[in-house]
Write a structure and sequence with these properties.
The protein is α+β, with helices and mostly antiparallel strands. It is built from eight helices and eleven strands.
Length: 266
């Protein structure tokens, strides 16, 4: 038995709840891929999903989330076409479709499941099925992005420490609107004036690891769960810049799951 097979047997054997979740996330990903191809929208596997592709040709065996990235212009185009393209079993989740959703990136949700996250940030969301995360990237100076993270961090603090959900959500919405309509447009103007060779997660997203366009484009493909899907041009260099030796397995006794409760409706 290979090392990968042993990991699969330990963490996500066929029929396990985690493997069922991974396969449902794969369904979401393949639908996203279909829509992006139809509309000429570029995206790529990212973060732990990209590590999984490069190291395991699929999910990291213990991984319970799935991430993709795209440039902000493509992200805005995707949000405009997704609602009309998705089957009834899936839903786009962003602030426009769910007023209690305060992240600055979108999720594609499955409507045939229920998922409760360990951080409990999702407790008032309208859609709570299995999901994949869709992150926009922007050219920006890292210090400007860190400023945008600080403005968002206060929302997380309010939500995390609240004993009155209705009151705290009103506060969070006010901060979200201020950031979206005032703070972030001003920061984006500064980004255009100053310029940057660095690409990071979009404004307000709490991940500022730098990427470089030459590592990302032109996109190529790599095997992921039996499908050839988009990955950065030099995924190895990109991943090493963020994670170091990503081919080395972490401490398997100290893994932190994202999911507290999971139910399937079909």
């Amino acid at each position: 038995m290979t090392n990968h097979q042993m990991l699969r047997e330990r963490f996500n054997p066929d029929g396990s709840m985690l493997r069922r979740q991974q396969l449902r996330m794969l369904e979401l990903l393949l639908e996203l891929d279909r829509i992006c191809r139809k509309h000429g929208i570029s995206y790529w596997l990212s973060s732990g999903t990209l590590i999984g592709a490069m190291r395991h040709d699929g999910f990291i065996p213990w991984d319970d989330d799935l991430d993709v990235e795209m440039m902000r212009n493509d992200y805005l185009r995707l949000l405009s076409v997704l609602p009309a393209e998705l089957p009834a079993t899936m839903a786009l989740q962003d602030h426009a479709t769910d007023p209690n959703y305060f992240y600055h990136y979108a999720k594609l949700r499955d409507r045939r499941s229920f998922l409760e996250e360990t951080n409990n940030y999702d407790r008032l969301l309208k859609e709570r099925g299995i999901y994949i995360d869709i992150f926009p990237l922007e050219r920006q100076r890292r210090w400007l992005h860190i400023v945008s993270e600080k403005t968002t961090g206060h929302m997380y603090k309010i939500w995390r420490t609240s004993s009155d959900d209705a009151r705290s959500m009103r506060q969070v919405r006010r901060i979200f609107r201020l950031n979206r309509h005032v703070v972030y447009p001003v920061l984006r103007c500064l980004c255009r004036l100053l310029g940057s060779k660095v690409v990071t997660s979009g404004m307000g997203i709490p991940y500022h690891n730098p990427r470089y366009m030459e590592d990302i484009f032109p996109l190529t493909t790599h095997a992921f769960e039996g499908h050839l899907l988009p990955v950065p041009h030099d995924a190895d260099h990109l991943l090493r810049g963020i994670y170091g030796d990503y081919m080395q397995l972490p401490n398997l006794d100290k893994l932190q799951p994202h999911v507290n409760k999971l139910e399937f409706y079909d």
